[in-house]
Amino acid sequence: MKKFISLIIALALSLTLIMSFSACAEVENGVKIQRMKMTLEYTDADGQSVERTVQLKLYLNNAPKTTARFMELAEKGYYNGVCVSNVQTNWVEFGAYKYVDGTLTRADGELETLKGEFSANGWSGNSLLSNKGALIMKRDYTLDTNTTGVYDSAKSTVIVALGSVSKFPSSQYCVFGVVCSDDEAYTATSASTTKTHPSIDAFSALTELRETSDGVMTYYNEKENAFYATKLDEEGVRRYYLGATIAEDDSNLLEGEAEEQFIKKLDENSTEFLVIPYNTITIKSIVKA
Question: Which pTM was predicted?
Fold first, then answer.
């Protein structure tokens, strides 16, 4: 009888644990997911202060190591204060840089590299694609030579796809989550009105900060640790300048062979060049939702 009672108690405890786990874990199509909440702060193209909260969804079974790294860094506060360091037409990225005393500063130097879950790394359990809204763990191009065996160079930089991004195929980059497509409420801090939009729209709005109202766009080369500026001249020809700004007398204009070499480098190694938004976009926090 005592053994029978003990067995009943053990089964009851096991059932309680299972039910407790099931209640806490969110499962979607057989995959365990974790929702996260990210808060962005920046000044928009009209000079208005903006704070937006967006919803993220991580797929834990598809990319267990990568999602564990992302959640660990978020819980430690690593992402608090990092900036959006690249704003392209169809993706943005964050996680590697902070502004320290007004200077763009690498923040991930002490982090170990991560071997991502995608097919080129021998991982067959990740069916996520780099479509619009995808969260992609970017490989570090200062370490990565794009050769076999160097696919474990990811650290903390996250790409948010704003469309289908062929530069980051899911066979060679770890897609570990999505920006939720359901609505999110955000309030511009300069106004009292609340607007409701899909979370991905909050990231899409950042593309307006790629260049100034005068058409100046700033590049940052990660390998060279150097800035370049670009703008169309009066005749509609794109010109390039050394440095983050354009001198009034055009004294930093790249001309002749220097210009040709830069354009060639930009075409052949475009992934080395970040497009720095002209207004600082800061990640205020990332927490579990």
Answer: 0.86
The residue type of 64 is P
Residue showing tokens 């938004």: 277
| Cα gap 258→246, rounded to integer Å | 16
Place of tokens 């052949």: 268
Query: Which domains, and CATH codes, for the chain?
Result: 27-210+278-288 (2.40.100.10), 217-273 (no CATH)
DSSP state of 253: B
Cα gap 30→255, rounded to integer Å: 58
Hey, which bits of the chain come out as E strands? 26-28, 31-43, 49-59, 84-87, 91-94, 97-100, 103-106, 134-139, 154-161, 174-179, 183-187, 194-198, 217-221, 226-232, 238-242, 273-276, 281-288
161 closest CA partner among 200, 198, 125, 202: 200
> Which two three-digit tokens encode residue 265?
């480098």
Q: What is the pLDDT along the chain (289 residues), one digit of tens a residue?
A: 554 444 444 344 333 433 333 344 699 889 999 999 999 999 988 889 999 999 999 999 999 999 999 999 999 999 999 999 999 999 999 999 999 999 999 999 899 999 889 998 889 999 999 999 999 999 887 666 656 556 888 999 999 999 988 889 999 999 999 998 766 665 555 555 666 778 899 999 999 999 999 999 999 998 889 999 999 999 999 999 999 999 999 999 999 999 999 999 999 988 889 999 999 999 999 999 8
Burial category of 144 from C-beta neighbours within 10 Å (exposed 0-12, middle 13-18, buried 19 and up): middle
Torsion angle, CA of 17/19/24/29, rounded to 10 degrees? 120
